[in-house]
Amino acid sequence: MTDVQRYCNQCTTWYHENCLGEIVAAEKMMMEDLDIIAAFPIIRGHSSESGKDQQDWDVSGTGRMVLKAREWVQNGAPENWKKKLSARFVHHVLSDEWQYYICTVCQATI
Hints:
The chain is built from six helices and five strands; from the N terminus they run ββαβαβααααβ. It is globular, with a radius of gyration of 14 Å. Helix content is 36%, strand content 14%. It has helices spanning 17-20, 33-38, 57-60, 63-75, 81-85, 87-94; strands spanning 5-8, 13-16, 23-24, 42-44, 100-101. It is an alpha+beta fold and 110 residues long.
């Protein structure tokens, strides 16, 4: 069972992944770790089909951590930014290949 949703910053709307259609490939670029997290989609929910263990941010979503990373990219990050975000979350984002979708309304990558 999957009940994972993606948030579109441009439309300010949540979408179920099942309703978003085709998965698009993420561009492979050399980016700093904080930039990768800042570009990460805002996701909430957990898919038992993913084969991944449920994480504490699955329920509340990745928004708080992603938005904080975006703020730090703009204004400068503290030296211990990985600890402040959660070392587990940082490792989770950086150690996996993630799927992205195109918003059906505004065409943003989410």
